[in-house]
Automatic annotation (TrEMBL):
SUPFAM superfamilies: 4'-phosphopantetheinyl transferase
Biological source species: Myceligenerans indicum
The entry's keywords: Transferase
Gene3D superfamilies reported for this sequence: 4'-phosphopantetheinyl transferase domain
GO molecular function: transferase activity
Keyword Transferase attached: yes
Family, per entry: Belongs to the P-Pant transferase superfamily. Gsp/Sfp/HetI/AcpT family.
Superkingdom of the source species: Bacteria
Domain 4'-phosphopantetheinyl transferase per the UniProt entry, residue ranges: 136-206
InterPro entries: 4-PPantetheinyl_Trfase_dom, 4-PPantetheinyl_Trfase_dom_sf, P-Pant_transferase_sf
One Pfam family linked to the record: ACPS
Region (Disordered): 1-46, 231-256
Protein's name in the database: 4'-phosphopantetheinyl transferase superfamily protein
Ranges of biased composition (kind: Gly residues): 1-11
């Protein structure tokens, strides 16, 4: 399960997939992990739209094409099941960016519906992750980084995150950095600002106010989920500019 102490975020669920992997299904109603047995691109239904198929055709490496196909098909299948709609008919758009108000924020379902449904998609290495919730949600999956990447990127982190890395023994530092980075990307995708927000603005070693962050390791990958908690009564959403102004990076790069 994705959740500290077994706790889950209300109304959120997740599915992870990797070709040829085995394991248990996801648990509806809380963050969870599912790993379909022996799934390959040949086993998948044809549900992608023209835009997704055009992007698929641009990948040169077969592994990249299969990862994209599995991830985006999984997203449509999960959303179609939750909404009771044919996966092929789903259409996607972008929410307004909370940094500037322009339409390059969190991916959304075009047309909405009676019950708002938020989602997030990520794929990295051999894994793909889908998260679905009634509130804002973000998910990220990353293979463990190299020690060179830790040296290069640690300086951009929050001071509390840098301190945690400094306290880790060198052999464990790459795993600690990848865990922090995955949690940070999941949180920023949940906010809808993505990498348009300064990477040192938030400490994700614990859950930021109003959010539940959880993570796990799977097949040498790190997976993190960020789910928004219910807002206090009377509180409204943040106005454009609340999360910084360096925009232009989609909130969920993996779905673009």
């Amino acid at each position: 399960m994705l959740g500290p102490g077994g706790r889950g975020a209300p109304g959120a669920s997740g599915t992870l997939g990797t070709p040829g992997a085995s394991g248990g299904p996801d648990v509806p109603g809380e963050p969870g992990i599912g790993r379909p047995d022996g799934v390959t691109a040949r086993d998948l239904p044809d549900v992608l739209d023209d835009t997704e198929r055009a992007r698929l055709a641009r990948f040169r490496r077969p592994a990249d094409r299969e990862r994209y196909l599995v991830a985006h098909t999984a997203l449509r299948l999960v959303l179609g099941e939750r909404l009771g709609r044919p996966p092929r008919t789903l259409r996607f758009g972008r929410a307004a960016c909370p940094g500037c108000g322009e339409p390059h924020g969190r991916p959304v379902l075009a047309g909405g519906g009676a019950e708002p449904l938020e989602f997030s998609l990520s794929h990295g290495g051999r894994l793909a992750a889908v998260a679905v919730s009634r509130a804002a949600v973000g998910v990220d999956v990353e293979p463990q980084v190299t020690s060179a990447a830790v040296e290069e990127m640690s300086a951009v982190l929050h001071p509390a995150e840098r301190l945690l890395l400094e306290q880790e023994a060198p052999p464990r530092r790459t795993a600690a950095f990848t865990r922090i980075w995955t949690r940070k990307e999941a949180y920023l995708k949940g906010l809808g600002i993505g990498l348009g927000r300064a990477l040192d603005a938030d400490d994700v070693t614990a859950s930021p106010p109003g959010w539940l962050l959880a993570d796990t390791r799977l097949d040498s990958h790190h997976v993190a989920l960020a789910a928004a908690l219910p807002a206090p009564p009377g509180r409204r959403g943040d106005a454009p500019g609340a999360y910084g102004t360096r925009c232009g990076v989609p909130a969920d790069r993996a779905t673009s």
